[in-house]
Design a protein that fits this description.
Layout lengths: L1 E5 L6 H10 L5 E5 L11 H18 L2 E4 L7 E2 L5 E2 L3 H6 L8 E4 L2 E5 L6 H18 L4 E5 L20 H10 L3 E4 L14 E4 L2 E5 L10 E5 L4 E6 L2 E6 L21
Parallel strand pairs: 1-2, 2-3, 7-8, 8-9, 9-11
Antiparallel strand pairs: 1-12, 4-5, 6-7, 10-11, 12-13, 13-14
Helix pairs in contact: 1-2
Bound molecules: zinc ion.
Length: 260
């Protein structure tokens, strides 16, 4: 299975165009949160409508998975926690999103919402506990989770780690195969940071974010057992069934399984 991971597109519509154009070359595209840009003067509701149109078009041409990020929170629930209520409209388009669990190839994929308080955090805990039982029958278990784990190069801002400590505990408890994350835009570009980490058996990916029409992205081929990261700052690759070495080897040419 070929998977394309992007995240933190933050209403960069050219980057959505890029992802939509790349989509036919992959079996699955994951957009791991932060679709909207709270710093953009354009009203969030308008941004939401535009992004929903992009997602609808992408869902029509291939398999797509979408999660929320902290920029996507548009509503407060009855307990006062901020939630990305518009993800219900994403689900309405037939796109698996926050709270959903789907099968993709030989993997079970658990899609987690951004949590802003104890209610949603407990919902995530329940989702992972429930899926842990199902994951026993799957060859692999993937999580889509906007924040990277704490104390990881994938959550390094250049000054401090800014990851999700709960996620560390869940990774330790359940040992998924891959966590598809985002959130810390600078991590891959700062000394001491990276787009990739390995915690026990779990691979963690955070593409980071860059300006311009092409987003940073991670492309994976689960059969080839390789994952590659591409950015304006260069490209690197890891072999999934081998230990992680730092820094990961630089890519001078795309791997053979890369579609283009
Ligand atoms: Zn972001």
């Amino acid at each position: 299975m070929k998977i394309l991971l992007v995240s933190d597109l933050h209403y960069a519509l050219k980057q959505y165009d890029w992802a939509a154009a790349a989509q036919p070359d992959y079996d699955l595209v994951i957009i791991a949160g932060d679709h909207l840009d709270v710093a953009n003067p354009l009203d969030g509701r308008v941004q939401t409508v535009v992004i929903l149109n992009y997602l609808k078009r992408m869902a029509a041409q291939g398999r797509l998975i979408v999660s929320s990020g902290n920029h996507d929170l548009d509503t407060r629930d009855a307990s006062g926690e901020k939630i990305a209520a518009w993800m219900e409209r994403v689900r309405g388009l037939g796109i698996p999103t926050d709270g959903d669990t789907v099968e993709a190839g030989d993997a079970l994929v658990t899609i987690c919402p951004w949590w802003d308080g104890p209610r949603v955090r407990e919902a995530v805990a329940g989702q992972l506990a429930r899926d842990a039982v199902r994951a026993k029958d799957a060859r692999r278990w993937y999580w889509v989770y906007h924040a990277p784990p704490d104390s990881s190069p994938t959550s390094w801002t250049g000054k401090r780690h800014f990851g999700d400590v709960e996620l560390n505990q869940w990774i330790d408890a359940y040992r998924p195969d891959i966590v598809f994350a985002g959130h810390i835009h600078e991590a891959p570009f700062r000394p001491g940071g990276s787009w990739v980490d390995r915690i026990g058996p779990t691979w963690v990916f955070n593409c980071g974010r860059q300006i311009g029409p092409t987003p940073t992205y991670v492309a994976l081929d689960t059969e080839a057992g390789e994952a590659a990261w591409f950015s304006l700052a260069g490209a690197e690759m890891v072999t999934l069934d081998a230990p992680l070495t730092r820094p990961p080897p630089a890519l001078t040419a795309p791997p053979a399984w890369m579609p283009r």
